[in-house]
Amino acid sequence: MKKFTVAILGCGNRGGDTYGNLLTESGKFTVAALCDRDKARLAYYGARFGGEMFSDEEEFFAKKRADVLVVATMDRDHVRQGIRGLELGYDLLLEKPISDSKEECEALLAAQKRSGGKVLVCHVLRYAPAFVLVEKLLRAGKIGQLVEIQALEQVAYWHMAHSFVRGNWRRRDETAPMILAKCCHDLDLLQFYAGSRAKTVSSVGDLAYFKPENAPLGAQKRCLTCPFVETCPYSAKRIYIDTWKEGGCKPSIWPHIQITSAYPLTEKALYEALETGPYGRCVYACDNDVVDHQLVEIAFENGVKATLTMMGFTAGCGRIMRFHGTLGEIVLDELGDTVRLLPFGGKEEVYSISALGAVDSGHGGGDAGLCNMLYEVLSGGGTEGTSLAASIESHLMAFAAEDSRKMGGACISVHGN
Ligand SMILES: NC(=O)c1ccc[n+]([C@@H]2O[C@H](COP(=O)([O-])OP(=O)(O)OC[C@H]3O[C@@H](n4cnc5c(N)ncnc54)[C@H](O)[C@@H]3O)[C@@H](O)[C@H]2O)c1
Questions:
Q1: pLDDT value for 51
Q2: Which among 19, 60, 69, 74 is the best mutation to test ligand 1's pocket, defined by most ligand atoms within 8 Å of the CB?
Q3: d(Cα 186, Cα 194) in Å, to the nearest integer?
Q4: pTM exceeds 0.70
Q5: How far is the CA of 277 from the centre of ligand 1 (A)?
Q6: Whose CA is nearest to atom 6 of ligand 1?
Q7: How far is CA 177 from the centre of its chain?
Q8: Which among 76, 116, 114 is positioned nearest to 95, based on CA atoms?
Q9: Strands (DSSP E) along 338-413, which ranges?
Q10: Hey, which residues does 53 pair with through a beta bridge?
Q11: What are the structural domains, with CATH classification, of the chain?
Q12: φ and ψ at 65, to 5 degrees?
Protein backbone atom coordinates (compact mmCIF):
# COMPACT_ATOMS: atom_id res chain seq x y z
CA MET A 1 0.00 0.00 0.00
CA LYS A 2 1.32 3.40 -0.99
CA LYS A 3 1.85 5.84 1.88
CA PHE A 4 1.54 9.60 1.41
CA THR A 5 3.45 12.24 3.32
CA VAL A 6 1.65 15.11 4.97
CA ALA A 7 2.63 18.58 6.18
CA ILE A 8 0.32 20.11 8.81
CA LEU A 9 0.00 23.87 9.06
CA GLY A 10 -1.82 24.79 12.29
CA CYS A 11 -1.46 22.08 14.94
CA GLY A 12 -4.46 22.88 17.12
CA ASN A 13 -7.71 21.05 17.70
CA ARG A 14 -8.18 20.20 14.01
CA GLY A 15 -4.66 20.00 12.57
CA GLY A 16 -2.98 18.26 15.50
CA ASP A 17 -5.62 16.49 17.51
CA THR A 18 -7.97 15.47 14.71
CA TYR A 19 -6.15 15.08 11.36
CA GLY A 20 -2.69 14.41 12.82
CA ASN A 21 -4.05 11.56 14.88
CA LEU A 22 -6.46 10.13 12.29
CA LEU A 23 -4.02 10.29 9.36
CA THR A 24 -1.14 8.68 11.22
CA GLU A 25 -3.35 6.08 12.92
CA SER A 26 -4.69 5.02 9.51
CA GLY A 27 -1.22 3.79 8.57
CA LYS A 28 -1.65 5.45 5.15
CA PHE A 29 0.14 8.72 5.92
CA THR A 30 3.33 9.81 7.62
CA VAL A 31 3.93 13.32 8.92
CA ALA A 32 6.86 15.00 7.15
CA ALA A 33 6.49 18.51 8.59
CA LEU A 34 4.54 20.51 11.16
CA CYS A 35 4.13 24.25 11.47
CA ASP A 36 2.55 26.14 14.37
CA ARG A 37 3.49 29.46 15.87
CA ASP A 38 2.60 28.09 19.30
CA LYS A 39 5.88 26.40 20.21
CA ALA A 40 4.41 24.28 23.01
CA ARG A 41 1.87 22.74 20.64
CA LEU A 42 4.52 22.26 18.00
CA ALA A 43 6.80 20.44 20.43
CA TYR A 44 3.94 18.21 21.63
CA TYR A 45 2.83 17.14 18.16
CA GLY A 46 6.44 16.96 16.91
CA ALA A 47 7.19 14.42 19.64
CA ARG A 48 3.99 12.57 18.80
CA PHE A 49 4.12 12.46 14.99
CA GLY A 50 7.74 13.19 14.08
CA GLY A 51 8.66 15.31 11.06
CA GLU A 52 10.43 18.65 10.67
CA MET A 53 9.09 21.45 12.89
CA PHE A 54 8.57 25.11 11.99
CA SER A 55 7.20 27.92 14.14
CA ASP A 56 7.50 30.39 11.29
CA GLU A 57 5.21 30.18 8.25
CA GLU A 58 7.80 31.81 5.95
CA GLU A 59 10.41 29.17 6.72
CA PHE A 60 7.82 26.42 6.36
CA PHE A 61 6.84 27.66 2.89
CA ALA A 62 10.45 27.95 1.69
CA LYS A 63 9.93 24.66 -0.17
CA LYS A 64 7.50 21.77 -0.63
CA ARG A 65 7.86 19.32 2.25
CA ALA A 66 5.24 16.60 1.62
CA ASP A 67 2.61 15.30 -0.81
CA VAL A 68 -0.32 16.93 0.98
CA LEU A 69 -0.66 20.14 2.94
CA VAL A 70 -3.27 20.25 5.73
CA VAL A 71 -4.34 23.87 6.24
CA ALA A 72 -5.89 24.02 9.73
CA THR A 73 -5.12 27.56 10.84
CA MET A 74 -7.75 30.20 11.51
CA ASP A 75 -10.39 31.11 8.93
CA ARG A 76 -8.80 34.25 7.53
CA ASP A 77 -5.49 32.50 6.70
CA HIS A 78 -6.84 29.59 4.66
CA VAL A 79 -6.79 31.14 1.21
CA ARG A 80 -3.44 32.92 1.52
CA GLN A 81 -1.79 29.74 2.79
CA GLY A 82 -3.74 27.52 0.39
CA ILE A 83 -2.52 29.51 -2.60
CA ARG A 84 1.08 29.29 -1.40
CA GLY A 85 0.66 25.56 -0.95
CA LEU A 86 -0.80 25.05 -4.42
CA GLU A 87 1.97 27.14 -5.97
CA LEU A 88 4.52 24.84 -4.33
CA GLY A 89 2.79 21.84 -5.86
CA TYR A 90 0.92 20.48 -2.83
CA ASP A 91 -2.50 18.87 -2.87
CA LEU A 92 -4.59 20.38 -0.06
CA LEU A 93 -6.79 19.24 2.78
CA LEU A 94 -8.34 22.61 3.53
CA GLU A 95 -10.26 23.45 6.69
CA LYS A 96 -13.59 25.17 6.33
CA PRO A 97 -14.60 27.89 5.93
CA ILE A 98 -12.59 28.49 2.78
CA SER A 99 -12.91 32.25 3.27
CA ASP A 100 -15.51 34.84 4.20
CA SER A 101 -15.04 36.61 0.88
CA LYS A 102 -16.33 35.52 -2.51
CA GLU A 103 -13.31 37.08 -4.23
CA GLU A 104 -10.92 35.01 -2.10
CA CYS A 105 -12.85 31.80 -2.82
CA GLU A 106 -12.53 32.57 -6.53
CA ALA A 107 -8.83 33.40 -6.18
CA LEU A 108 -8.19 30.00 -4.60
CA LEU A 109 -10.18 28.25 -7.31
CA ALA A 110 -8.11 30.07 -9.94
CA ALA A 111 -4.88 29.03 -8.17
CA GLN A 112 -6.10 25.45 -8.15
CA LYS A 113 -6.80 25.57 -11.89
CA ARG A 114 -3.31 26.99 -12.54
CA SER A 115 -1.53 24.41 -10.40
CA GLY A 116 -3.70 21.37 -11.14
CA GLY A 117 -3.51 20.44 -7.44
CA LYS A 118 -6.34 18.62 -5.69
CA VAL A 119 -8.25 20.43 -2.95
CA LEU A 120 -10.53 18.62 -0.52
CA VAL A 121 -12.52 20.93 1.78
CA CYS A 122 -13.28 19.64 5.30
CA HIS A 123 -17.06 19.55 5.05
CA VAL A 124 -16.79 16.42 7.13
CA LEU A 125 -20.49 15.67 7.55
CA ARG A 126 -20.67 14.58 3.92
CA TYR A 127 -18.57 11.58 5.01
CA ALA A 128 -20.46 10.77 8.24
CA PRO A 129 -22.44 7.50 7.94
CA ALA A 130 -25.79 8.95 9.12
CA PHE A 131 -25.69 11.81 6.63
CA VAL A 132 -24.57 9.44 3.86
CA LEU A 133 -27.51 7.16 4.69
CA VAL A 134 -29.99 10.03 4.31
CA GLU A 135 -28.62 10.81 0.88
CA LYS A 136 -29.03 7.17 -0.16
CA LEU A 137 -32.64 7.08 1.11
CA LEU A 138 -33.47 10.30 -0.74
CA ARG A 139 -31.86 9.21 -4.01
CA ALA A 140 -33.60 5.82 -3.78
CA GLY A 141 -36.91 7.69 -3.77
CA LYS A 142 -37.91 6.36 -0.33
CA ILE A 143 -39.93 9.51 0.44
CA GLY A 144 -40.95 10.25 -3.12
CA GLN A 145 -40.13 13.70 -4.38
CA LEU A 146 -38.33 15.91 -1.85
CA VAL A 147 -40.36 19.04 -1.13
CA GLU A 148 -38.77 20.64 1.91
CA ILE A 149 -36.00 20.27 4.50
CA GLN A 150 -36.04 21.66 8.06
CA ALA A 151 -32.63 21.79 9.72
CA LEU A 152 -31.84 22.69 13.32
CA GLU A 153 -28.21 23.15 14.32
CA GLN A 154 -28.13 22.84 18.11
CA VAL A 155 -24.93 24.64 19.01
CA ALA A 156 -25.22 23.94 22.80
CA TYR A 157 -24.97 26.68 25.42
CA TRP A 158 -21.40 25.73 26.47
CA HIS A 159 -20.13 25.52 22.86
CA MET A 160 -21.76 28.87 22.13
CA ALA A 161 -19.93 30.37 25.11
CA HIS A 162 -16.63 28.67 24.23
CA SER A 163 -16.35 29.47 20.53
CA PHE A 164 -18.65 32.40 19.84
CA VAL A 165 -18.61 34.46 23.07
CA ARG A 166 -15.20 33.90 24.64
CA GLY A 167 -13.21 32.24 21.86
CA ASN A 168 -11.85 32.27 18.33
CA TRP A 169 -15.10 32.98 16.50
CA ARG A 170 -16.54 35.74 18.71
CA ARG A 171 -15.71 38.84 16.67
CA ARG A 172 -16.79 39.67 13.16
CA ASP A 173 -13.70 41.78 12.46
CA GLU A 174 -11.44 38.78 13.19
CA THR A 175 -13.31 35.85 11.73
CA ALA A 176 -16.11 34.60 9.50
CA PRO A 177 -19.76 35.37 10.32
CA MET A 178 -21.25 32.66 12.51
CA ILE A 179 -23.61 31.36 9.82
CA LEU A 180 -20.52 30.55 7.74
CA ALA A 181 -18.20 29.49 10.58
CA LYS A 182 -20.73 27.19 12.24
CA CYS A 183 -23.14 26.29 9.46
CA CYS A 184 -21.27 25.99 6.16
CA HIS A 185 -21.59 22.22 6.81
CA ASP A 186 -25.36 22.50 7.09
CA LEU A 187 -25.69 24.75 4.04
CA ASP A 188 -23.47 22.35 2.09
CA LEU A 189 -25.68 19.43 3.11
CA LEU A 190 -28.89 21.28 2.24
CA GLN A 191 -27.83 22.03 -1.33
CA PHE A 192 -26.41 18.50 -1.67
CA TYR A 193 -29.66 16.89 -0.47
CA ALA A 194 -31.81 19.30 -2.49
CA GLY A 195 -29.76 18.33 -5.54
CA SER A 196 -29.77 21.89 -6.76
CA ARG A 197 -28.13 25.29 -6.44
CA ALA A 198 -29.84 27.79 -4.14
CA LYS A 199 -31.82 30.48 -5.91
CA THR A 200 -32.74 32.87 -3.08
CA VAL A 201 -31.91 33.17 0.60
CA SER A 202 -33.34 35.31 3.39
CA SER A 203 -32.26 35.42 7.00
CA VAL A 204 -32.81 37.06 10.39
CA GLY A 205 -30.81 36.80 13.60
CA ASP A 206 -28.87 38.82 16.14
CA LEU A 207 -26.95 38.83 19.39
CA ALA A 208 -29.81 38.54 21.86
CA TYR A 209 -28.18 37.65 25.15
CA PHE A 210 -24.41 37.74 25.68
CA LYS A 211 -24.24 41.46 26.49
CA PRO A 212 -23.29 43.46 29.62
CA GLU A 213 -26.89 44.40 30.46
CA ASN A 214 -27.78 40.75 31.00
CA ALA A 215 -25.13 40.13 33.69
CA PRO A 216 -26.69 39.28 37.07
CA LEU A 217 -26.21 41.92 39.75
CA GLY A 218 -22.85 41.40 41.46
CA ALA A 219 -21.31 39.37 38.60
CA GLN A 220 -17.55 39.81 38.22
CA LYS A 221 -15.51 40.17 35.04
CA ARG A 222 -13.88 36.75 35.53
CA CYS A 223 -15.64 33.56 36.61
CA LEU A 224 -13.13 32.42 39.23
CA THR A 225 -13.75 35.52 41.37
CA CYS A 226 -17.50 35.68 40.69
CA PRO A 227 -20.13 34.82 43.34
CA PHE A 228 -22.00 32.84 40.65
CA VAL A 229 -19.05 30.57 39.83
CA GLU A 230 -20.84 27.44 41.07
CA THR A 231 -24.33 28.29 39.83
CA CYS A 232 -24.09 30.12 36.49
CA PRO A 233 -24.50 27.62 33.60
CA TYR A 234 -21.89 29.60 31.65
CA SER A 235 -19.34 29.54 34.50
CA ALA A 236 -15.93 28.78 32.99
CA LYS A 237 -15.06 26.68 36.04
CA ARG A 238 -18.12 24.49 35.46
CA ILE A 239 -17.56 24.27 31.69
CA TYR A 240 -13.81 23.52 31.74
CA ILE A 241 -12.71 22.24 35.15
CA ASP A 242 -15.74 20.42 36.55
CA THR A 243 -16.51 18.64 33.26
CA TRP A 244 -12.84 17.67 32.81
CA LYS A 245 -12.80 16.08 36.27
CA GLU A 246 -16.19 14.43 35.78
CA GLY A 247 -14.88 12.97 32.51
CA GLY A 248 -11.91 11.33 34.25
CA CYS A 249 -9.21 14.03 33.70
CA LYS A 250 -8.34 12.91 30.16
CA PRO A 251 -4.96 14.14 28.83
CA SER A 252 -6.56 15.80 25.80
CA ILE A 253 -10.19 16.68 25.32
CA TRP A 254 -11.99 19.32 23.26
CA PRO A 255 -12.72 22.16 23.94
CA HIS A 256 -10.44 22.14 26.99
CA ILE A 257 -7.29 21.70 24.87
CA GLN A 258 -8.03 24.98 23.12
CA ILE A 259 -7.72 27.09 26.28
CA THR A 260 -4.18 26.09 27.23
CA SER A 261 -0.98 24.90 25.57
CA ALA A 262 -0.42 22.37 28.37
CA TYR A 263 -0.19 18.81 27.11
CA PRO A 264 -1.29 16.67 28.79
CA LEU A 265 -4.02 18.77 30.43
CA THR A 266 -3.60 19.44 34.16
CA GLU A 267 -5.92 21.04 36.67
CA LYS A 268 -3.25 23.67 37.40
CA ALA A 269 -2.96 24.62 33.71
CA LEU A 270 -6.74 24.85 33.35
CA TYR A 271 -7.00 27.12 36.41
CA GLU A 272 -4.16 29.29 35.08
CA ALA A 273 -5.94 29.65 31.74
CA LEU A 274 -9.14 30.71 33.48
CA GLU A 275 -7.33 33.18 35.76
CA THR A 276 -5.64 35.08 32.95
CA GLY A 277 -6.85 33.91 29.52
CA PRO A 278 -9.90 34.80 27.42
CA TYR A 279 -11.79 31.65 28.35
CA GLY A 280 -12.06 32.69 32.02
CA ARG A 281 -14.04 35.82 31.18
CA CYS A 282 -17.65 36.37 32.20
CA VAL A 283 -19.88 35.71 29.17
CA TYR A 284 -21.55 39.08 29.75
CA ALA A 285 -18.21 40.93 29.74
CA CYS A 286 -16.50 39.75 26.56
CA ASP A 287 -15.68 41.67 23.39
CA ASN A 288 -18.04 39.47 21.30
CA ASP A 289 -20.34 40.77 18.60
CA VAL A 290 -21.41 37.73 16.54
CA VAL A 291 -25.01 36.50 16.65
CA ASP A 292 -26.25 33.89 19.12
CA HIS A 293 -29.08 32.65 16.92
CA GLN A 294 -29.92 32.94 13.22
CA LEU A 295 -32.69 31.64 10.98
CA VAL A 296 -32.27 31.08 7.24
CA GLU A 297 -34.88 30.37 4.55
CA ILE A 298 -33.72 28.98 1.19
CA ALA A 299 -35.46 28.41 -2.15
CA PHE A 300 -33.55 26.11 -4.51
CA GLU A 301 -33.57 26.42 -8.28
CA ASN A 302 -35.36 23.05 -8.62
CA GLY A 303 -38.23 24.13 -6.35
CA VAL A 304 -37.11 22.41 -3.12
CA LYS A 305 -37.30 24.69 -0.05
CA ALA A 306 -35.31 24.59 3.18
CA THR A 307 -35.08 26.31 6.54
CA LEU A 308 -32.05 26.28 8.81
CA THR A 309 -32.06 27.45 12.42
CA MET A 310 -28.69 27.96 14.08
CA MET A 311 -29.41 28.09 17.80
CA GLY A 312 -26.91 28.90 20.55
CA PHE A 313 -29.43 28.21 23.33
CA THR A 314 -29.71 24.44 23.39
CA ALA A 315 -28.81 21.96 26.10
CA GLY A 316 -27.06 19.54 23.76
CA CYS A 317 -24.90 19.74 20.67
CA GLY A 318 -26.15 18.06 17.50
CA ARG A 319 -28.24 18.38 14.37
CA ILE A 320 -31.85 17.54 13.68
CA MET A 321 -32.88 17.41 10.02
CA ARG A 322 -36.39 16.64 8.80
CA PHE A 323 -36.99 15.81 5.15
CA HIS A 324 -40.53 16.11 3.80
CA GLY A 325 -41.27 14.24 0.60
CA THR A 326 -44.43 13.49 -1.36
CA LEU A 327 -44.45 9.88 -0.09
CA GLY A 328 -42.85 10.08 3.34
CA GLU A 329 -40.54 11.71 5.85
CA ILE A 330 -37.00 11.18 7.06
CA VAL A 331 -35.92 12.50 10.47
CA LEU A 332 -32.24 12.54 11.40
CA ASP A 333 -31.61 13.31 15.07
CA GLU A 334 -27.99 13.16 16.19
CA LEU A 335 -28.73 13.50 19.92
CA GLY A 336 -31.53 10.96 19.68
CA ASP A 337 -29.07 8.70 17.80
CA THR A 338 -31.62 7.85 15.11
CA VAL A 339 -32.43 8.20 11.45
CA ARG A 340 -36.14 7.42 11.01
CA LEU A 341 -37.73 6.67 7.68
CA LEU A 342 -41.51 7.20 7.79
CA PRO A 343 -43.15 6.15 4.52
CA PHE A 344 -46.77 7.33 4.32
CA GLY A 345 -49.00 4.34 4.95
CA GLY A 346 -45.96 2.11 5.41
CA LYS A 347 -43.90 0.72 8.26
CA GLU A 348 -41.41 3.00 10.03
CA GLU A 349 -37.74 2.03 9.78
CA VAL A 350 -35.35 3.20 12.50
CA TYR A 351 -31.58 3.21 12.06
CA SER A 352 -29.29 3.68 15.06
CA ILE A 353 -26.65 6.27 14.15
CA SER A 354 -24.09 4.79 16.53
CA ALA A 355 -24.59 1.36 14.95
CA LEU A 356 -23.76 2.77 11.49
CA GLY A 357 -20.07 2.69 12.40
CA ALA A 358 -17.04 4.87 13.10
CA VAL A 359 -19.14 7.51 14.83
CA ASP A 360 -16.71 8.10 17.69
CA SER A 361 -14.00 9.60 15.48
CA GLY A 362 -15.53 13.09 15.57
CA HIS A 363 -18.44 14.65 13.65
CA GLY A 364 -20.32 11.35 13.68
CA GLY A 365 -17.50 9.56 11.87
CA GLY A 366 -17.13 12.35 9.31
CA ASP A 367 -13.57 13.20 10.33
CA ALA A 368 -12.41 9.63 9.74
CA GLY A 369 -14.48 9.40 6.54
CA LEU A 370 -12.83 12.53 5.19
CA CYS A 371 -9.35 11.13 5.91
CA ASN A 372 -10.27 7.94 4.04
CA MET A 373 -11.58 10.02 1.12
CA LEU A 374 -8.33 12.02 1.09
CA TYR A 375 -6.41 8.80 0.58
CA GLU A 376 -8.78 7.72 -2.20
CA VAL A 377 -8.54 11.08 -3.96
CA LEU A 378 -4.73 11.15 -3.76
CA SER A 379 -4.66 7.61 -5.11
CA GLY A 380 -6.65 8.74 -8.16
CA GLY A 381 -10.09 7.49 -7.05
CA GLY A 382 -12.77 8.90 -4.76
CA THR A 383 -15.68 11.10 -5.60
CA GLU A 384 -14.38 14.40 -4.21
CA GLY A 385 -17.88 15.46 -3.07
CA THR A 386 -16.28 18.29 -1.14
CA SER A 387 -14.01 19.52 -3.90
CA LEU A 388 -13.21 23.22 -3.82
CA ALA A 389 -15.58 24.03 -6.67
CA ALA A 390 -18.49 22.15 -5.02
CA SER A 391 -17.75 23.60 -1.58
CA ILE A 392 -17.91 27.20 -2.69
CA GLU A 393 -21.67 26.86 -3.25
CA SER A 394 -22.37 26.64 0.51
CA HIS A 395 -20.23 29.71 1.05
CA LEU A 396 -22.24 31.71 -1.47
CA MET A 397 -25.38 30.70 0.45
CA ALA A 398 -23.80 31.85 3.72
CA PHE A 399 -22.70 35.18 2.21
CA ALA A 400 -26.26 35.76 0.97
CA ALA A 401 -27.68 34.82 4.40
CA GLU A 402 -25.37 37.26 6.15
CA ASP A 403 -26.18 40.04 3.66
CA SER A 404 -29.88 39.36 4.17
CA ARG A 405 -29.56 39.36 7.97
CA LYS A 406 -27.80 42.71 7.90
CA MET A 407 -30.60 44.05 5.70
CA GLY A 408 -33.28 42.85 8.14
CA GLY A 409 -34.27 39.73 6.24
CA ALA A 410 -34.31 40.86 2.61
CA CYS A 411 -34.60 38.16 -0.07
CA ILE A 412 -31.18 37.83 -1.76
CA SER A 413 -30.46 36.16 -5.07
CA VAL A 414 -27.50 33.83 -4.49
CA HIS A 415 -26.13 33.81 -8.03
CA GLY A 416 -27.34 37.24 -9.15
CA ASN A 417 -30.32 37.74 -11.44
N1 LIG B 1 -14.32 20.84 9.71
C2 LIG B 1 -14.85 21.11 10.90
O3 LIG B 1 -15.87 20.55 11.27
C4 LIG B 1 -14.20 22.11 11.80
C5 LIG B 1 -14.43 22.07 13.18
C6 LIG B 1 -13.79 23.01 13.98
C7 LIG B 1 -12.96 23.96 13.40
N8 LIG B 1 -12.79 23.99 12.06
C9 LIG B 1 -11.91 24.97 11.42
O10 LIG B 1 -10.56 24.54 11.57
C11 LIG B 1 -9.69 25.66 11.67
C12 LIG B 1 -8.82 25.50 12.92
O13 LIG B 1 -9.65 25.44 14.06
P14 LIG B 1 -9.14 24.82 15.43
O15 LIG B 1 -10.36 24.56 16.22
O16 LIG B 1 -8.18 23.71 15.19
O17 LIG B 1 -8.36 26.08 16.03
P18 LIG B 1 -7.11 26.05 17.03
O19 LIG B 1 -7.00 27.42 17.58
O20 LIG B 1 -7.25 24.90 18.00
O21 LIG B 1 -5.87 25.72 16.08
C22 LIG B 1 -5.35 26.62 15.18
C23 LIG B 1 -3.82 26.50 15.26
O24 LIG B 1 -3.24 27.24 14.18
C25 LIG B 1 -2.07 27.90 14.69
N26 LIG B 1 -1.79 29.02 13.77
C27 LIG B 1 -2.64 30.03 13.47
N28 LIG B 1 -2.07 30.84 12.54
C29 LIG B 1 -0.86 30.30 12.26
C30 LIG B 1 0.18 30.66 11.36
N31 LIG B 1 0.10 31.74 10.59
N32 LIG B 1 1.28 29.90 11.32
C33 LIG B 1 1.38 28.81 12.11
N34 LIG B 1 0.42 28.42 12.98
C35 LIG B 1 -0.67 29.15 13.04
C36 LIG B 1 -2.46 28.29 16.10
O37 LIG B 1 -1.32 28.54 16.91
C38 LIG B 1 -3.25 27.07 16.56
O39 LIG B 1 -2.43 26.10 17.17
C40 LIG B 1 -10.60 26.89 11.70
O41 LIG B 1 -10.62 27.51 10.46
C42 LIG B 1 -11.96 26.33 12.03
O43 LIG B 1 -13.02 27.11 11.48
C44 LIG B 1 -13.37 23.08 11.27
A1: 96
A2: 74
A3: 12
A4: yes
A5: 18
A6: 14
A7: 13
A8: 76
A9: 338-343, 349-352, 412-413
A10: 34
A11: 4-117 (3.40.50.720), 125-210+288-413 (3.30.360.10), 212-280 (no CATH)
A12: -120, -5
